[in-house]
Amino acid sequence: MKILVILIFGSVLSVNLMAQQEILLYPDGTPGLKQDVKVVEGDPDPKPDGMLRLRNVTSPSITFYKPKKANGTAVIICPGGGYSILAINHEGHDIAKWFAQNGVTAFVLKYRLPQDELFENKSIRPLQDAQQAIRLVRIGSKKYGINPDKIGIMGFSAGGHLAATASTLFNTQVGEITDTKVSVRPDFTILGYPVISFSDKYGHSGSRQNLIGPDLKIADIEHFSNELQVTAQTPPAFLVHAFDDPVRVENSLAYIQGLKDHGVSAEFHMYDRGGHGFGMTKKGRGPVESWPQRLLDWMKINNF
Length: 304
Prior knowledge:
Layout (H helix, E strand, L loop, with lengths): L1 H17 L2 E4 L28 E2 L6 E5 L8 E5 L7 E2 L1 H13 L3 E6 L14 H15 L1 H4 L6 E6 L1 H11 L19 E5 L12 H8 L5 H6 L13 E6 L7 H12 L4 E6 L19 H11 L3
Helix pairs in contact: 3-5
């Protein structure tokens, strides 16, 4: 137990030293939290790879990274982890630092996982946090030095599912806290090897089970299959995926097809090899390592 605590504390400390500012999404109390919940946020099973995998998030937040010279664009980043953990450094803080180095204001979203033992109505909690993050960033745009019409959302793996859900289901603000005067629609979407579909054909069963299981209903499966929710109002998107990813590339292809069918602009980069979880920092995976430059090109072309 002592070793576990030291590892968690050390990891969290390193995150805080890198970060500019952590902002609670619900400073007056987390909605939907069950009574008498007593858990410790942290990595339930630390591994020697140096990656921090968070679980038991009960105080969701955004961590603000301010560039030295901001261009007015902001990106809210949703780490992946199968809706079971959050790969908060590898697919969160490391990405935010890269954005800040390139003039983009970044916010790492530490969202609640759909843990039935912690939350009532568990399936809405990740989306509620994503919508609240967009709401707070848009309301505070002047304070953060950003354009309120240039707020994007980014996600990896199951975090990509959350980002895509926020990009398709924005017309309904979920949960106990809503504000119809503030749009929760992202202005653009960036998806890295995303889970998109919950269908039996190519959906990711682990993410599906964690978000809406154990009693799977067809209506819920379709509701959270984002390829079925695309409309002409869905934001433009950039996607990257590897052909050999166990989260099947058909997920990205289905989302791209949905965007195309509705006249929404998109760019998709599919690499032959790269596997899953390559992020921006893993080396030795070949041409897939060049995808961040492709993203910068897309953002420049689209005035983001």
